[in-house]
Each structure stands twice: as C-alpha cells, then as structure tokens.
Amino acid sequence: MNADVVVIGAGIVGAACAYHASQAGLSVCVVDRGPPAGGTTGAGEGNLLISDKLPGPELDLALLSYQLWRALAEVPFRDTTFGARTELEHKGGLVVAASADVLRGFGELAARQAAAGVEAVPVPPDGLREHEPNLAGDLAGGIRYPQDMQVQPMLATAVLLRLARDAGAVLLPGEAVTGFLRRGDRLVGVRTARRAVSASAVVNCAGTWAGEVAALAGVRIPVSPRRGFVLVTEPLPRVIRHKVYAADYVADVASDSSALQTSPVVEGTRSGTVLIGATRERVGFDRTWSPQAIRRLAAGAVRLFPFLAEVVALRAYRGFRPYCPDHLPIIGPDPRVPGLWHACGHEGAGIGLSAATGRLIAQSLRGEATDLPLHPFRPERFDEGAG
Amino acid sequence: MLLVDGGARPGGQYWRHGPEPADPRSRHRLRHGWPTFQRLVRRAESAGAALLARHHVQTVVADKAGWLVDCLVGDEPSASAVGTAIRARRLVLATGAYDRQLPFPGWDLPGVMAGGGVQALLKAHGVLAGRRVVVAGTGPFLLPVAAGLVAAGARVPLVAEANSPLHLAHYPGALAASGPKLREALSYAVWLTRGHTAYRRRHTVIRALGTDRLQAVQVARLDRHGRVCPGTIRTVHCDVLAVGWGFTPQLDLANQLGCAGTVGADGNLVVAVDRVQATSVPGVWAAGEVTGIGGADLAVIEGSIAGRAAAQAPVPRSLIRRRARLRRFADALNAAFPVPAFLLDDLPGEVLACRCEEVPVRAVREAVSELGATDARTVKLLTRTGMGWCQGRVCGFAVAAATARACGRPVSEADLRAMADRPLAVPSTLGRLQGGEPPSH
Amino acid sequence: MITFDGVETPCRAGWTIGAALTAAGVRSWRTTRRAGRPRGLFCGIGVCFDCLVTVNGRPSMRACLTEARPGDVVSTQDGTGHGDRAC
C-alpha cells in the first residue's frame, strides 16, 4: 500500500493533519492501534480556548486555530455544516477570580494577551451575573473572552476523518505500528501486523503515546501523561452560557508539580450535561478512580455555581494529557530522522490547537512556508543545551 | 459481617416482598422458596450479621487495610444527604441482575414494562401494572410473571415465548434439576389455564401500538432462525406489555474494582470467579447472577461458597457438586432461549436504541458506517447512547450487539465493558460528592 | 393520600410513588427532553431512570423507589425538571 503521508494516530491531531494534508492534495493513510479518537481525544472536554494561552508561540497557535475553526464551521457536511454536526459553539469564555489579588494577576496576563491580539473584556463584580446569571454572587470580578469556543471532540475527530476520507484518505483502525520502512537513514513508511504502507513522510500524532512511536523510530521526545478527571452532571437546560473557569487554572496548566492540582472549569454542552474539570496529576497511566479528585471537582464547581449543589452527577471519566516539560507541543520535521514529522504533546489544549497543527504540518509536508514559524515547536529542542 | 443492601427489606428481586402481614392468598404463588429465605435470614441474624438496608453503594476503592465502601442512604439515593463509609477487609459482591431489554418499535410507550417491574409492583405492593397484560420475550421467567398476574386478577390473553421450551430436551444439563423445575413450571401452567391465557411458542411482539400509551401489540410467529414469518402478524389489545429477554448482571462495583470478566454463555459480561467464587482481585469474592445468570437456587449455593471462602472456612465438596449441577441447568436454559435474530438485524432505524438520550438505532449504524466507529465505546461517545441517566444499563447490551453486527463481528468483552463502566454506581448531588468525611463503620 | 398534579391520589402504607400512580391508572408522569414523549414505569426496579418525577418540588426522583409519604406533592416533570433555572 502507498500514500504520500502516513499519519500515526487517529485522534483529533491526527484527524486534523489528515484533513489539511488531503485538502492540500496529498494522499493520506491514517493508522491507529485502536478506533478513531480512542486515546485522549475521547476524554477531552472540547476546549477551543484563547483565554488560557500565554503570549508567545502557544497563543500564536491558538489565534491561528481560532481562524481555522471558524472557517471549518462553515464547511458543508452531508445535509448540514461541520459546525452544526460537531456542536461547535462560539460561546466565549469567562475567567473569574475569587479575590482582588488573583484578579489583578490575571488582569496583567490579559493585558499582555490583548497586546498580542486577543479580545479580553474586563467584567466588574456586579457585572458578572449579567453574563452568567447562575454564578456565585461573591466573586471579585472577571474577564470575558469572546473568542473562546467549544466543540464535541469525538464528533470533530470523526467528521475531520470523514472529510479526509471523502477526499481520498484511507483510515486503518485497529492496526498498531510495529516498525518503520527505511531506505538508508530515511523513513519511507510504516509496518503494521497486517501490512506495510510506503510513504514519503510519516507523522507521529500518537498523543500521550507519541514517545513510544518516536522510540520505535530511534529518537526521544519527552511526552508524558498528565491525568485528568471530568465530572458530568445530569442533563440540564442551558444554565451556564460560557466556558467559565477560575483564574488559578492558568497557573495549574503551567505548573510542573506532579501532585494533584485542581481548579474549577465549568461549561454546559448542547446535550444539556454540564462538564466539570479540571484536575492534573502526574501519576503515569494509573487508571484508578480517585475519590479525592472527584470531591475536589464537585467542590470547585459548587463554589462557582452554588445551584450545582443540588444538581446530580451521573458519571465521571478520565484521560491522560500528553505533557511536554516546556508546555509547548512538538510540531514539525525531525532532523534526527528524515521522513519523520511529529505533531503531539499538546497537553490539555490538543482539541483547540489541532486546527493550527494540522495546517502547519500540511504546509511543512508540502515544503511550503508555514503560517507560523515551527522553530519553537521543533522536536530536537529537548536535546539542545545539554552540554 | 455487614450486609449492605439498597432495598428497604432483604430479598432482592426474587424474594421481594411488601410490609408484613402480606395477603395470605398471595404468599404461596408469589413467594417461591420462602422457607429457604426465612432460614437464611435467621441464620445470618443469629451469626451476628448486621443488615444495612437502604444503603446504596456508590463507590468502592482500595483502602489501607482493604476496601472503602461509600454508601448513600435512603430510598432514592440521588436525593440523599446522608452517607456512610464502610471500611471492610473483604468483600463479597452479590449485586444481582435485572431484566435484559432489547429495542423494538414502540418499546418506549408508557405501558411497556419489564417483566421484573410488573412482578415488583405485585410482590412489594400488591398493585397490578395493568388490567389486560400481554407477556412476551423469552425464558422461563415469563411464566411466573404471567401466573402472578392471573392469580392477582389481571387478564393475560397471551404469553408469547420467542423460542420453544421443547429445545430444553436437547440439553443434557436440563435433566440435572428437572424434577422441582418441572413441578414449578406445571404450577404456573395451571394458573395460565385458569386464566385462559394462550401460551404461544415461537411467537413474539414485533411492535407496540398506541399514541401516548400502549393500546395494543402486534404479534408474529418466528421461524427457527428467529426471523418474522410474513403473514402471521396479529394485533392483541392490552394496556401493559410485560417484556424480558433474560437477565443481565449488575456489574458496577465489580467493574469499579477491576474484577476480570468474560462474555458468558448468555452473551452478558459476567465476573470471572474461581472454584471458591474468588474474583481476580484479592479480597473480593462474587456470587449469584453477577457470575452468570443462573437463577435463585444457584445464587444461594454460590453465596454459601463465597461466604465460606471469604471467612476462610472450608467449602464442602457437596456444595461444589450442587453448584456444578445447577450451573449445567442454567447453561441449558441459556442455550435454549437465545435472543431472536429479528431483534438485532431487522429493526427500523428510527426505533430508539437509547431511551434516556432518545438516540435511534440508525445513529448507531451510522457511527459505524459513516464515522469510522469500530467498537461500542466509540459508538457511545459519538452518539450519546449510554450517557443518560441510566448510564447504559438498559441499552448497553443492545448497543454492543448492534455495533458488533454493524462491524460484522461477534460482540466482544470490550464492547460490553464500554457500556458498563460506571465510576458512580449510583448518582448523587454535587453537594453530596464534595463531602466532608461521612460517618464511618 | 398524595397529590398528583393537584389531584388527590390514594396511597397505602409502604407504597412507592410509582405504585400509587399505577394503582390510580396513571401511566406516565414525565416528558422526554428532546421529543417531549411521555414516560412512566419501565423497569420498575430502579435501573432505567425512566420513571423520574418531581416530588415536593425536587425533580428527577425515581417513582419506583421513592416511598410515598402522606401529603407528598407529585407533579409531572417536563424534560430535565430544571426549566426554572434556564438562562
């Protein structure tokens, strides 16, 4: 079997790469050891956030993704649009602070974000409930980010893959990559238990398991798991309009601590359930349920929305975010292994940043100028400065 | 020794009863094996076992010295503000089973009920679910449901058994316990005769009719492959349809604990246990329907074995032998009463697969054919089947089966497990979840 | 005695709300949130959550499990039962 590109991993990032690559005229084969979105994507909340990105390469990726998601929303899909089918909602985000100090700190971040092109609108404490009527009445204020959006991540992945397949891409679920085809020191395809697929380029989109794929190719990329739990309520009418989170969330994302970090993130969904995050822990791939994490999620949500105390939680789920030590994803060709590209390590921002990632990878694969410099995301950066 | 049970009174489904004194006439026809139940309760009490009634276990997690069992107390646990945490060194899971259901056109009309629900109303409250009840589905359970209704004064025009009980003659294991079982079946048959109930083999309900409540059912004959025979469709008027396709185990806690399972002879995910009912998790035993549907007598034997093993007492070989006989009989029943093919293959796309989230069967098929799903977990996440209030308890088996069929392969353990993974075995408010430390035993 | 949508409904000691409503000939007491279809008892033993009803102002109580207490006010539940909170 032949293709221009083999994409390893059929999660949101692999799907975005497949979509953009096939739109750019490349023939694509997507392989995954399991079904589409069988990894972290299936445990995502569907955040498409500008608000929590620090100015710099990550914010640049988020702003580019914003444009791409908005364009994608209008793409026709069967008898509807991509946006309607994937529950893409341009709802906006609201970051709230419990104290004036925390609000001031976040305000400084917002000012830097605004300087970089982000819409950030301060909200005084008595203005919060105009945007979120069910919010607690004793918060110190907040900042509204009209550019924040939300999508249903499983549907987004499946529809991106469907569009890619409509354009000729092939999806091979249930086939783990067992090795690579080489010509000299160059990768020229992959091997699975069932077949070999020749290609000029291989893209590692294996998310939290991308390190394993890289190791199979003989290189190291330091992607490791950062466990998160999400609590899900009973179905409700629309009771929460935005994605709402506490200002200390950003500090948690940027933290290197391996201990349990929790900070409330609450949002409604089209189906009516309210999703409650967020926890972060570095416990390897430990799948055991943590009552402590669930307790903290519940408490954090009730703090922001007191009415939630009487709302019933039906289930919880967990996933493992792919975390890189410098909190930036890995995007681009690997100079150590010609023929290998990486598109992974997006931590908790993979759903949102997949759009820009897919675009940049497609441009890079075609040898075109990329919309953003790939230098900050280069795979070999972890080997530098070691001496 | 603590017996933790969600019911107001012990006995589960099989020995469900209302507050005493019950109507003396109803006792003998609704209370099977009652002396056994009374003996077991007496022996447990005299051995010092404490019963925690109305205690619904939400989570079980490993704790320093064993297990932490977190319970909600009350009849409706989701509204409960009271909880209790129990520290236990060893656990025996006997969480039982419930009616297995499969979608069919009109199954979401009020008046369509599970056979077990119709029985529960009668046994616990002496309330008739309806005045004119059709009983349908498959398996020996249809008989006591119908007989109980007739004895309580309902009209049961028809029992539609999708298979043929004569199949049992093909299974040697059926002879193992045939004496008492045949007598039991005969006693039901007497009631059905008195009630002028037609018992039709190889017949099933193919559609429930009505606008906002059940008014009638369409019944048809099935061929030996489980497919509808054209030209045999009749309409039968009724206000309730009591339907069931065997049973399926309650695996929430076993799955939380990570107990290994397997796909049982009846197509359900069941907990795997060894010779003395020990699960794959040290310190956890399982007994009764959770290890495979097998009826009350087998459950009592398995419970006796598990209890002894958990107490580190010897298990007499006579119990092992009795269990083997009853297991063979259960296996024969499973083999003789399979789910008919028409229910899995020929359903119109608009029939609801998931009642809670109102997801049609069509969506499950499209998730496979259009959106690339290859397993039930992916189907669930793409379609919302199994994500509503009941968390896949009702639709899990059907979604797993429909997914596998759409993928052209048999149902896998992973499919069933994906629909049965419930980190919260009972729902509770966020106020309750955020807790504080509950009082503990 | 309990009331259902304002109508007095007889009830025996120990009965669940579901039993009382069924004895009174009531088959459904809620509507689904997508298609507005009526639902009442289905599994009857607390597994299916079809029988959700609002009791004394509290939505989504399983009628088949909730014991009826004298004076209980039971009302038909529309969809999620939390419509008053919608914004």
List the helices and strands and how they pair.
The complex is a heterotrimer of chains A (387), B (441) and C (87).
Chain A: E1 5-8, H1 12-23, E2 28-31, E3 47-48, H2 57-73, E4 76-77, E5 80-81, H3 82-85, E6 93-97, H4 100-115, E7 121-123, H5 128-131, E8 141-145, E9 149-150, H6 153-166, E10 170-172, E11 177-183, E12 186-192, E13 196-198, E14 201-204, H7 210-216, E15 224-233, E16 243-246, H8 248-254, E17 261-268, E18 274-280, H9 291-304, E19 312-323, E20 330-333, E21 340-344, H10 350-365
Parallel strand pairs in A: 1-2, 1-14, 2-10, 6-16, 14-21
Antiparallel strand pairs in A: 3-9, 4-5, 6-8, 7-8, 11-12, 12-13, 15-18, 15-19, 16-17, 17-18, 20-21
Helix pairs in contact in A: 1-6, 1-10, 2-10
Chain B: E1 2-4, H1 24-30, H2 34-46, E2 50-52, E3 55-63, E4 66-73, E5 83-88, E6 91-93, E7 97-99, E8 112-114, H3 115-125, E9 132-138, H4 142-151, E10 155-161, H5 178-194, E11 198-201, E12 203-209, E13 216-221, E14 234-237, E15 240-245, E16 247-249, H6 252-257, E17 261-263, E18 269-271, E19 284-286, H7 296-310, H8 317-336, H9 342-345, E20 352-354, E21 359-360, H10 361-369, H11 376-383, H12 396-407, H13 413-418, E22 428-429, H14 430-434
Parallel strand pairs in B: 1-2, 6-19, 8-15, 9-10, 9-15, 10-11
Antiparallel strand pairs in B: 3-4, 4-5, 7-16, 12-13, 13-14, 17-18, 20-21
Helix pairs in contact in B: 3-4, 4-5, 7-8, 10-11, 10-12
Chain C: E1 2-4, E2 7-9, H1 17-23, E3 30-31, E4 38-39, E5 52-55, E6 58-62, E7 73-75, E8 77-78
Parallel strand pairs in C: 1-7, 3-8
Antiparallel strand pairs in C: 1-2, 3-4, 5-6, 5-7
